[in-house]
Design a protein that fits this description.
Helix content: 25-40%
Strand content: 15-25%
Largest sheet: 6 strands, antiparallel
Strand order of the largest sheet: 1-6-5-2-3-4
Order of helices and strands: HEHEEEHEEHH
Distance between the termini: 10 Å
Number of helices: 5
Number of domains: 1
Shape: globular
C-alpha cells in the first residue's frame, strides 16, 4: 500500500512542477522522455500508410532499429507479434527514445483506431523491464484500452489465466483491476 502513496506523491510533485513551468498563450512542443520509467509512450508515425480498417484494435508487438532503412538510418520500426510492420517511432522522438533505451526488440503494446485528422491513428507503449513488470505494464495498458475503447480493443494473443467468463467491458475491467492489484502486491510488497 505504501507504494501507491509514494506513486501519488511523485505524480503530484511532477504535475505541480509542470504547472509552474507552463507559459500562458504559448505553444510548447515537448518530446516524451522517460529515463526512469519502465515504459515509453508515443504516437505511431506512418500508421495510416501501413494499415487499414482490419488492423483497428489493440496489438502486442516489439520495436526494432532499422539501420539499413533507405530513408532514415535511425528509424525504429514497430511490429505486431505476427510480424506485421505497423509504423515507426516518430522521427523527432528517436533521439529521446534511444536515450531512454538502447536495447533491441523491446516488447510493446499499442492500438490503432480511426483518426480525426488522418484515416488511422495509433499509439504504442514500449516496455523495458523484467518479465514480471513487463506483464504488469501490458495488463495496465490493456485495462486502459478496454476502459477507453471496449473489449474489441483487447489485443490478439492477449491471454489471462482465469476460470471466469469475461464477456463485457464491466467483467474485463473488474478482472483486470483485481489482477493488477494482486500483481502489484506480489511485485512490490516488502
Amino acid at each position: 500500500m505504501w507504494y501507491i502513496i509514494i506513486a501519488v506523491i511523485v505524480v503530484l510533485y511532477f504535475v505541480g512542477k509542470s504547472a509552474q513551468k507552463q507559459t500562458p498563450k504559448k505553444e510548447i512542443s515537448v518530446s516524451v522522455k522517460v529515463s526512469t520509467n519502465p515504459d515509453y509512450l508515443c504516437k505511431i508515425a506512418g500508421v495510416q500508410y501501413r494499415n487499414d480498417v482490419q488492423d483497428i484494435g489493440g496489438f502486442l508487438g516489439y520495436v526494432r532499429s532499422e539501420p539499413t532503412n533507405p530513408h532514415d538510418k535511425n528509424a525504429i520500426a514497430i511490429y505486431r507479434n505476427d510480424g506485421k510492420h505497423v509504423g515507426y517511432i516518430p522521427k523527432d522522438e528517436t533521439k529521446d527514445f534511444r536515450e531512454w533505451s538502447a536495447k533491441e526488440n523491446l516488447p510493446c503494446v499499442g492500438f490503432i483506431k480511426d483518426g480525426d485528422e488522418v484515416a488511422l491513428y495509433g499509439k504504442v507503449k514500449v516496455i523495458d523491464a523484467d518479465a514480471d513488470e513487463t506483464e504488469l505494464e501490458v495488463i495496465k495498458f490493456v485495462k486502459w484500452l478496454v476502459s477507453n475503447f471496449g473489449v474489441k480493443f483487447i489485443p490478439v494473443g492477449f491471454n489471462v489465466d482465469t476460470d471466469k467468463t469475461l464477456r463485457t467491458k464491466k467483467d474485463w475491467l473488474a478482472f483486470l483491476t483485481e489482477y493488477i492489484d494482486e500483481k502489484e502486491n506480489e511485485l512490490y510488497e516488502e
